[in-house]
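INTERNAL AUDIT FORM
Audit reference: QA-55
Scope: verify that the stored structure record matches its stored sequence.
Auditor: D.O.
Record contents follow.
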Amino acid sequence: MQEETSAADPLSLAGVVPPTVTAFGPDESLDPEGTAAHARFVVEGGAHAVFPLGTNGEFPLLAPGERDRVVEAVVEEVGGEVPVIAGVGAPSTRETVARAEAAAEAGADGLVVVTPYYYPLDGTAAVAHYRSVAAATELPLYVYHIPSKTGNALSLDTLDAVADIESVAGLKDSSKDVPWLGQAIDAHPELTFMAGSDSLLFAGLELGCTGLVSAVANVFPGLVVELYEAYAAGEEERARELQSRVYDVRDALKRGPYMAGVKTALSLRDVDFDVGGLRSPLRTMDEADRDALAADLRALDLLP
């Protein structure tokens, strides 16, 4: 059965939280309308919250003003219907604070703060960083732990210190380190934990996560919502079966260039919006990969 949401989280985040995409035009310019339309799509598909400017949102490739406009567009579209937790992380504390303040001004409900990246970071610096960001607004803060991309893993001792910061409400874990996540949840039942990999949705729920940050849900939100709802209803065998199906979809989306699968799959679906391609240096699928992805999704009965 799904555990109750955590005491430190004023948003009581639970359920499916897609890391929504950032739409671009043919010239790779920001498309706020397409970005907002995708957020609307996942909410209508049953998503319980949205997370703009995560990895799928290509946040490191956006200028500061573009990042602020993404948050504004998503809040304007779905704010008030579901929580909008905006990604505001950057390599520097100064820039992270600036984006946090802008997200708060735009009406975001919470902040997702990735561990600073590029330069190695020790525990003392990590704690100081999160304290500074927390002090910048009154919004709840969710740590984004993805050491494979940032190069900076949080030790359990460091997490203990970060968790003591008053506005820290939870953590999105994309480390795929199940023992680490299990121990973190055990030590901090007061926090909200969100599983950040489609490979570990069911496992994350079993460990005590209340939220699922799922790239698959960017394309097929109903599938991941069904998994979450089955687990919450105590139908664990059904949830296991749906996790198996998510594995198949995840494998299909991983075809071709890094992260190209989600936007390509959206273009294959019968949706009334266009999110465009990826911003350079990321690249979109070629026709051979696109055709193969379409065949994979048809074999899974996910496309007509």
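Auditor finding: record pair retrieved intact. The longest helix spans residues 236-253.
Action required: none
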